[in-house]
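Build the 3D complex.
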Amino acid sequence: MSAQIAARALTRGVGNLVLGVLALAALLCWPLLVDNVFYQRIGALVMLSALSASAWNLVGGYAGQISIGHVLFFGCGAYASLLGYTWFEWAPMVGAPVGIALSLLLATIVGTPTLRLKGHYFSMATIALAELARIIVVNSPVLGGGVGVSGPALPRSMADLSFISPVPYYYIFGGVLAVLLLFTWQMSRSRMGYYLRAIRGQERAARSLGVPAPRFKLYALLVSAGFTSLAGSLYATMVGFVDPDSGFGILLSVKMVIAAALGGAGTLFGPLVGAALLVPLEEFTNAMFGGGGTGITYVVYGAIIVFISRFAPGGLAEILTRLQAWRARRAG
Amino acid sequence: MILAQVVLNGFLMGAVYALFSSGLTLIWGMMNVVNFAHGDFVMIAMYVAFVVFTALHLGPVFFVPAAAMLLFLLGVTVYFGLVRHVMRGPMLAQILGTFGLALVLRYATLWIFTANFVSLPENLLGDVVTFAGLRLEPSRVAAGIAALALTIGLHLLLTRTALGSRLLAVAEDRNAAMLVGIRPDPMQALAWGLGAACTGVAGALIALFFYISPLVGESLALIAFVVVCLGGFGSVPGALVAGLTIGVVESLTSFWIGPAFKDVVVFVLFLGVLWFRPQGLLGKA
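Done.
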């Protein structure tokens, strides 16, 4: 009997390993398998979206502090990169550390008072700060105003990281994502990971056991803000243009939340899975129904989100568990 | 004298803010559900007013109740169709669900009515009256007074009637309310209906003097969030005080610094209050 169980566990372990290797191989080869620029571009956008959603996941998923203004940090990164070019002719990635520094400062300002509190204060404060940043940028001609700022029109050297093909971006974004996921994995097994999960589970209990909750929530926010800012700089490097809506638009914040929530917030690969579903969905609905400002894309997109939250509030993880339960019932 | 005019205009706008924020705070305080589609509820009500006026040629006496009834139905439908199911999931699911709903409402309206700004005729309720040196626009005055009365009415409904007590009992402790024989489901549906109906009235009132566009809900929703946080979650008197404050602050900022910066000051004020009095102006600690 026990041998049977062990054998089953072994096959499952091997199965998971094979599945993991296959998934990794598919991720590494994706741009080489498709030679269509449209699909390659989608691949790069998936990686970028997975990167920002994974960064959000540190504070929103693991620590359970739901930020709906993460675009604030994304915008800081994007604007720092392109303003560095506009003002000082820097290569876009040179501005990235400036964006990260600014993001860490803003994260401290918004996090210090609100992370001491429970409930929705943190969410609301992050929205307010992001919207504040957007309004300030729109009204400041120095920061590009409502028009936005552009990067180098033609690459001046390799340092500009300006490529025509989306493939190099795919690997750059994927590389940064890999670093972030490695960090997240390490963190989730460390003292900080346990602290954060304790805080998410029951903050009062965690505090009574001596977990310095506000401090660790702030740490999670800082790391998250830094990586989100980096994602913004990478986005600006690829697109070479940012305006108040693409840098600080509230929709972007929500897309990060949705990608993470769909795949499973607080899981390592959840945001990647969510991004891999949502980005193609958006690109295909856009291609099918046309942009053109008719807004049909967002009606479809919104309806799908409503549908998912209505029938599987726990995200894909819930669907998977239900599927397993159903299979077990059928087998047994 | 100009200053008095500015404060008056802000006060009247603030009363409407207070009304639609009361709708949000009722739902938020009762169920701890943040409705991200709230601004779009306001927008829908504005279009109801616009359609009733342009297609049926009926005035505010008809389109305000029409907006209230339609929004009541929308609120109850959303509760039974979406929120009730979403509530058993994590908080993230609520954000997902209501935000998805916001996208559907906003962009379906954009698809039907296009992105063009429309508005109702300015003198729908008559021409500007000058009284004691103050220019009184009948549409703003009527909207402000009606909103003020309804917000106070909602507060009285919640605190002075048996129905209000049942609503608050469910808000305070769902299980204890069930023990004394109150079924939470109809009460929560009613809260959604009432909250949405208040929002509907507010939307139809704003439409009297404000531009109407499919994206107008986005900025109005942010104001409602700020008002609810400032006033304290679930507190209608708090929403009233905070709404009036925000209205006057916005108006003074537009006058002294410039209209582009009115939201900047509102958000800075909000962040400042979060630092020093996080439970809100009238909220309990």
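The two ends of chain A are 16 Å apart (CA to CA).
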